[in-house]
Design goal:
Immunoglobulin-like, 4-stranded mixed sheet, 1 helix, elongated
Amino acid sequence: MKKVFCLALFCFLIGLAGCAEKNRLTTPLMTVAIDPVEKIEIAAGTDKELTAVVRDASGNIIDQPVVWSINDPGIGEFSSETSKNTTFTALAPGDAVITLTCFGISATVDVSVS
């Protein structure tokens, strides 16, 4: 009876370890960055190209869906809010923060429009 219990416990622990390994592998870690990474200073009525850079846990660039947003839409807008590459058009003077989000991971860059 003791051997059956030990065998059952062993199988349970192996199964539990297998589940943990499976979850770890199917949930890759990522980093998200905006290119350019430094503060953007731009004049109203002009454009700036922005690129989303998403990397996996190994540092490899990967293609994942992204969303661009700005905390003050009166300052500027994007040519596409869901493309890896977008054009930011400055609309009016002021300061704002541009955010890039991918699966809940975000990066930001400050923008100043003159």
